[in-house]
UniProtKB/TrEMBL annotation:
Organism: Winmispira thermophila (strain ATCC 49972 / DSM 6192 / RI 19.B1) (Spirochaeta thermophila)
Domain Calcineurin-like phosphoesterase: from-to ranges: 1-189
One annotated GO molecular function: hydrolase activity
Lineage of source species: Bacteria, Pseudomonadati, Spirochaetota, Spirochaetia, Winmispirales
Superkingdom, natural source: Bacteria
Name of the molecule in the record: Ser/Thr protein phosphatase family protein
């Protein structure tokens, strides 16, 4: 299993007609947010594999197409969600390619913009996933394989400023439901020495900024 993970910044290595040469045998694409939907559509057409995504706190032009409660800007109205060939997984738990995957989009609330949440609001979103996670435990013998979020957990790969603060509810989620991987974006990395991976209990937390190739051992 080879998963191409992307987030936050369009990379010319990815946005290239030679992407399949750079990343052969990709089985799944996962986006952790803040990328143009056209970019995800490109990946869906190039790989012809499932593309799963959450929205972050930027590049929200098409948020209303996938979240009916959000007003849709006039410029976005003519575009049907299926045009992009990608599956919105925020607030959902899915089984894809044999993997149990859950998504939670958005960032910590810092200016009351779209797709920003307080700790309490994110707790509510987390708790709404619990029934399906319990079902997974009964049906498949495990709660979850991969958690996909835009923001990181509190104190892990995050930053002290309000915009880039992680969520405390994610720490509880990881400790309780023990996914093998937690993939997030939101935290930009500017050199190869910055840390991408951390370990929290039984979960490997990975910042997939720009792109990251994951070959899960599940």
């Amino acid at each position: 299993m080879r998963i191409l993970c992307v987030s936050d910044e369009v990379d010319p290595i990815i946005y290239s007609p030679r992407v399949k040469e750079h990343f052969p045998d990709i089985d799944l694409v996962i986006s952790a947010g803040d990328l143009p939907m056209e970019y995800l559509g490109f990946l869906a057409s190039m790989f012809n594999k499932p593309v799963l995504f959450v929205f972050g706190n930027h590049n929200l032009k098409y948020l209303g197409l996938f979240r009916p409660s959000i007003p849709i800007p006039f410029s976005a109205q003519p575009v049907p969600p299926h045009k992009f060939g990608a599956t919105y997984i925020s607030d959902r738990v899915l089984k894809v390619k044999g993997l149990l995957i859950a998504g939670l989009g958005g960032s910590y609330r810092y200016n009351n913009g779209l797709n920003q949440y307080s700790d309490f609001q994110m707790w509510l979103k987390v708790l709404r996933l619990v029934p399906r996670l319990l079902y997974n435990r009964i049906r498949y013998g495990r709660f979850l394989d991969i958690l996909v979020t835009h923001a990181p957990p509190y104190g892990i790969n995050d930053r002290p400023d309000p915009c880039h603060r992680g969520f405390k509810s994610f720490l509880w989620f990881l400790k309780t439901f023990k996914p093998r991987y937690h993939l997030h974006g939101h935290i930009h990395l500017y050199n190869g020495l910055e840390k991408r991976e951390s370990r929290y209990h039984q979960t490997t937390v990975i910042n997939v900024f720009k792109y990251y190739l994951l070959e899960p051992s599940l």
